[in-house]
Amino acid sequence: MSRILPKKRLGQVFLKNKIFLAEIIKAGEISNKDTILEIGPGTGILTEALLKTGAKIIAIEKDSQLVIFLKEKFKNDKNLTIIEADIRDFLKNPSFHTKYQIQDTKYKIVGNIPYYLTSYLFRLFLELEKKPEIIVLMIQKEVAQRIIAQPPQMSLLAVSIQFYAQPEIIALVPKTAFKPQPKVDSAIIKLIPYSHPVIARPARGGASDEALPAGRQESHFFKIVKAGFSHPRKLLISNLSQNLKIPKNQLQEIFSKIALPFNIRAQNLSLEDWTNLIQHLFA
User: Fold this and answer.
1) Which of 37, 72, 132, 136 has the fewest Cβ atoms within 10 angstroms?
2) Is residue 194 a contact partner of residue 120, using CB atoms and an 8 Å limit?
3) Cβ proximity of 110 and 38 under 8 Å
4) Can you give the pLDDT at residue 3?
5) Which domains does the chain have, with CATH numbers?
6) Maximum distance among all Cα pairs of the chain, rounded to whole angstroms
7) What pTM was computed for the model?
8) pLDDT tens column, 204-259
9) pLDDT tier at 14 (50, 70, 90 boundaries)?
């Protein structure tokens, strides 16, 4: 097989240190009963480790040169299906679940994704109608740390991910573990998607999830959160008033009811605080 060179335009870096493969397998709780959607198999170092578990692997690779390489390398592996596709297009096609026998939530996602696609791909994964049981990905360390953040370091990214799933950093991976060596360190992050969005949980202070009409909960949630983070240095009450056209005195009444200080900023709210605030806004 010919030598494969990483393509910079695709953000390709290949893991060369096999010690981290065991961390990914363990975090994914992968067994021979699983169906695994592998994102960006590259030269197949993780694919090979996944196959050893006995799991069924569906590997999505955009690079046609790598697809040829992988099909030759794993030509005798019956548990592996290699698909040449952009993962963004693949996930947007609802038929992929049935065509490749990915049944409901009985599948898991693993992979090493390009840094520049991280936020976008997470949103695609977590908004899937048929969500995976577990997601284990190699991503930029700084982004992983932002995803698991708690007050006072919350961000729109952290709130967005934690709305859909429980995140956990499994291991930090130095840049020396890759070839070519990237400029930043990475992290293995694990997400366990919730069966229902966090907004459906009971709120404190008397409001209920029924305060938001069915089917509009998520859109309301993200409309408010995006407004709150629109100017991170500004007070939350000012952002909400300006972006949502709600009088400040009305917001102050709600803040008092749920024990939020008037001078609080968006990054200081927990996910529970956001849920409670939003449910009271529409009570």
Assistant:
1) 72
2) no
3) yes
4) 53
5) 8-193 (3.40.50.150), 198-281 (1.10.8.100)
6) 70
7) 0.86
8) 444 444 444 444 678 888 999 999 999 989 999 999 999 999 999 999 999 999 99
9) low
